[in-house]
Amino acid sequence: MPRMNSTTYQKLQEQIMSVLYDNHPQPLSALVIAEAMVRDHELVRRLLRELEDKRFVAAVKQGKMGEFTTWRRWKLSPEIYKRYEQIAQKEGFT
User: Fold this and answer.
1) Residue 82 lies in a domain
2) For residue 1, is it within any domain?
3) Is 58 helix (H, G, I), strand (E, B) or coil?
4) Which strands, in side-by-side order, build the sheet including 73-76?
5) Under 8 Å CB-to-CB from 13, ≥6 apart: which residues?
């Protein structure tokens, strides 16, 4: 896989957070996010794990039918979602 510079890497992370914000409060799988971004889902999964380490996103490990054993869904962390809402209101998007 070719190496990406830090700016491209950061832009991809921002794009992931944008997709999650647009679909809030529904948690999305890495595959769905990758399809929305037209990217490889393995790359998206790696970026999601890094965002989780930074506490920008949260992994949802349990659904209506019980705990997920083989996969995760992702959503924005509550703090980050509140910040997005504040920015949207300030900019007049809501």
Assistant:
1) yes
2) no
3) strand
4) 28-29, 73-76, 57-60
5) 47, 50, 51, 56
> CB-side exposure of 71: number of CA atoms within 13 Å?
12
Helices (H), 4-40: 6-22, 30-37
Range of the domain at 73: 6-91
Q: Which CATH number is 19's domain given? A: 1.10.10.10
In sequence order, the β-bridge partners of residue 60 are 73
Burial 13-31 (b: 16+ CB within 10 A, else e): bebbbebbeebeeebbbbe
Q: Kindly give the confidence (pLDDT) of every residue in the chain, 94 residues in length, as a single tens digit, with 9 standing for 90 and above.
A: 567 788 888 999 999 999 999 898 889 999 999 999 988 889 999 999 999 999 999 988 766 666 656 678 889 898 988 988 898 888 876 5
| Count of domains observed in the chain | 1
